[in-house]
Specification:
- This protein is mostly helical and 136 residues long.
- It folds into 2 domains: 45 residues, no CATH class; 74 residues, no CATH class.
- The chain is 51% helix and 4% strand.
- It has 6 helices and 2 strands, in the order αββααααα.
- It has a two-stranded antiparallel sheet.
- A hairpin with a 6-residue loop joins β1 and β2.
- α2 runs antiparallel to α6.
- The termini are far apart.
């Protein structure tokens, strides 16, 4: 166990050393390494970094706000009270799966329960694939 930790630390150090050498080599050869500022902590990081090495904040482009005109509260209430009939799916425009839920009684309640959880946590989508993320 101790040897594996030691090997891991050595490999991390060697990886960091090779990156530092590559950075020095590229800056010595006149190549520019583009740097940006972290969205979380504001430290300067490389533009290709997926997460900040200092704070761990993701650096990707932020998701666009959903332009769905549907809301979580009505969908959640419909799913809670009439979920076994798939009424919440008709509300968001998913007519085909709404009919399937109507015929199977919400997948015997399991499908309706899963939909209710997805609606409450904000990962349920409308017919166009837009996330329904506004409560009212």
């Amino acid at each position: 166990m101790l040897n594996s930790v030691f090997l891991f630390n050595n490999s991390s150090v060697s990886r960091a050393t090779s990156l530092a050498r590559r950075f020095r080599r590229s800056t010595n050869q006149g190549e520019k390494m583009s740097m940006v500022f972290c969205r979380g902590c504001g430290k300067e990081i490389h533009e290709t970094a997926v997460t900040c090495p200092n704070c761990g904040a993701p650096q990707g482009t932020p998701k666009e706000a959903s332009n769905s005109d549907k809301r979580i509260l009505p969908a959640a209430l419909l799913c809670f009270f009439l979920g076994v009939f798939g009424i919440h799916r008709f509300y968001v425009g998913k007519i085909g799966t709404g009919i399937l839920q109507l015929l199977t009684f919400g997948g015997l309640g399991i499908w309706a329960l899963i939909d209710f959880i997805m609606i409450v946590v904000g990962s349920f989508t409308d017919k166009d694939g837009n996330t329904i993320n506004l409560w009212t």
